[in-house]
Every structure is written in structure tokens, then in C-alpha cells.
């Protein structure tokens, strides 16, 4: 059943719960650690994202199968490229990197995913993906060979997000990059949120409850956290 996006829209319309996605990179994932991993993530977690900039073949499937044995949370693929598409998940963020001007990540990877996708019963969620500067070069930047948008130019970020919405994206994702030195600022989140009528996802560099709360207060509908849980130090920061 295609219900992941509906669930997100319902939560946003009812203004709760605020959504928290924990990101698991299959390349760093060890099945033996999964029980411990699920014990340390917050009870408010609503979704599991699975993906990485580059992932070895077969690892995404194995990772999702292991997650499904431990949790009933919806699993959403957050792919670095078309090879990470698998029917083991509940849904796929069908990403276009709107902040960049590299056709490979605007349309080429998407076209290459179709032969497998059209034979899968996987919920597909058109998502505008916007990389903003998080203070250091991140994997998305390196792999996509595109520059992030500057946080000092919020109007460009807002225009990019709206261009995504007007092109039919159902979600907009503001990304400061995994392990960012600083996350997307609250002013940017709030400007983008006020302009959009589709849900807003924010991720990259969020390591503490304070930063999480700040992102929610600014208007993020869903926050994505990866590194802080990988390192097991979210509650200590
Ligand atoms: C998801 O890439 C982020 O948008 C995850 O970032 O690893 O810094 O939490 P962190």
C-alpha cells in the first residue's frame, strides 16, 4: 500500500508528530550491532532512511532486511544513485538535486532507475533535494560535482525550493551534508517553510536535542539525523 507520503502529509496537517528520520548508511552498517542501534535511537523516531553516496552492491537490500526484522518503522530509500533502488523498502525518495546543474543527478540517474522501478511495488516520492553549505565539503558535493547553495543567500534557496514544488515535487529536502559543521540555519528553514505548501525535510550536521528542537521550531516537518546516531553520541552532545 502506498501510504508513506500520505502519512507524512497527515502528520504535517495535524502538526504532529514532528517527524524524525534516522539515516542508516548500508556501507557502515553491521548486522551484529542492529539491536544495540535500535535501543539508542529516540522513541520519537518515525522513519528510517537508508542510503549513502556510494554503497556496495547488495548491501542496501541486506541492510533493509535486517532493519525490518527489528522494527516496524517505515523504511525509505534515500539513494546516492540508481543502484540503491530495491523493493525491500516501503518507499523511495525519487531525488533530483535541484541545487546543482549536473544533469547526471537532475535526470540521468532517475532515467537509469526506471527499468527496475517499474516492475517494483515501491512507493515513489518525487523529492527536490537542495544542498546548502554546511561549512565543509560533503560527500554529495564530491560525488555530484556540484556546489552547495550559500546560506547567506536565502532568497536563492527559497526560489530553488519553490521551483521544486512548482515542478511537482511532493517533498523538499534541505541538506547541509552528512557531518556538516553547521546545519541549515533556522532563518533559512523558516523562510523556505513559509514559502512552501509541501512538507519540508531538513538534515545534515544535527547532533543535539537543542539543534533538533531549533529545526522543528523553525518549521522543519521532518529532521534527518545520521552521524550522531552512527557515533552513538546524540544524547551526550
Ligand atoms: C541527512 O545527510 C544527512 O540529510 C545526515 O546528516 O549525518 O550529519 O546527521 P548527518
Automatic annotation (TrEMBL):
Cofactor(s) the protein needs: Mg(2+)
Catalyses which reaction(s): sn-glycerol 1-phosphate + (2E,6E,10E)-geranylgeranyl diphosphate = sn-3-O-(geranylgeranyl)glycerol 1-phosphate + diphosphate
A Pfam family assignment: PcrB
EC number(s) on file: 2.5.1.41
Cited function: Prenyltransferase that catalyzes the transfer of the geranylgeranyl moiety of geranylgeranyl diphosphate (GGPP) to the C3 hydroxyl of sn-glycerol-1-phosphate (G1P).
Entry protein name: Geranylgeranylglyceryl phosphate synthase
Taxonomic lineage from the root: Bacteria, Pseudomonadati, Bacteroidota, Flavobacteriia, Flavobacteriales
Residue positions binding sn-glycerol 1-phosphate: 173-179, 204-205, 226-227
Keywords attached to this entry: Lipid biosynthesis, Lipid metabolism, Magnesium, Metal-binding, Phospholipid biosynthesis, Phospholipid metabolism, Transferase
Amino acid at each position: 500500500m502506498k501510504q508513506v507520503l500520505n502519512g507524512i502529509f497527515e502528520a504535517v496537517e495535524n502538526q504532529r508528530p514532528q517527524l524524525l528520520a534516522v539515516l542508516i548508511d548500508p556501507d557502515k552498517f553491521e548486522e551484529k550491532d542492529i539491536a544495540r542501534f535500535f535501543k539508542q535511537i529516540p522513541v520519537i523516531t518515525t522513519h528510517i532512511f537508508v542510503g549513502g553516496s556510494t554503497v556496495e552492491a547488495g548491501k542496501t537490500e541486506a541492510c533493509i532486511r535486517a532493519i525490518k526484522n527489528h522494527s516496524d518503522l517505515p523504511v525509505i530509500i534515500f539513494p546516492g544513485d540508481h543502484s540503491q533502488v530495491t523493493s525491500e523498502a516501503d518507499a523511495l525518495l525519487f531525488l533530483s538535486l535541484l541545487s546543482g546543474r549536473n544533469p547526471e543527478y537532475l535526470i540521468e540517474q532517475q532515467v537509469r532507475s526506471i527499468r527496475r522501478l517499474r516492475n517494483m511495488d515501491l512507493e515513489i516520492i518525487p523529492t527536490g533535494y537542495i544542498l546548502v553549505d554546511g561549512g565543509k565539503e560533503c560527500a554529495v558535493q564530491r560525488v555530484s560535482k556540484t556546489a552547495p547553495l550559500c546560506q547567506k543567500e536565502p532568497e536563492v534557496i527559497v526560489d530553488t525550493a519553490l521551483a521544486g514544488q512548482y515542478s511537482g515535487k511532493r517533498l523538499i529536502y534541505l541538506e547541509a551534508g552528512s557531518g556538516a559543521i553547521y546545519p541549515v540555519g533556522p532563518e533559512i528553514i523558516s523562510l523556505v517553510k513559509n514559502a512552501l505548501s509541501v512538507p519540508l525535510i531538513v538534515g545534515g550536521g544535527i547532533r543535539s536535542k537543542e539543534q533538533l528542537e531549533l529545526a522543528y521550531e523553525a518549521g522543519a516537518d521532518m529532521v534527518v539525523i545520521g552521524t550522531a546516531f552512527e557515533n552513538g553520541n546524540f544524547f551526550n552532545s
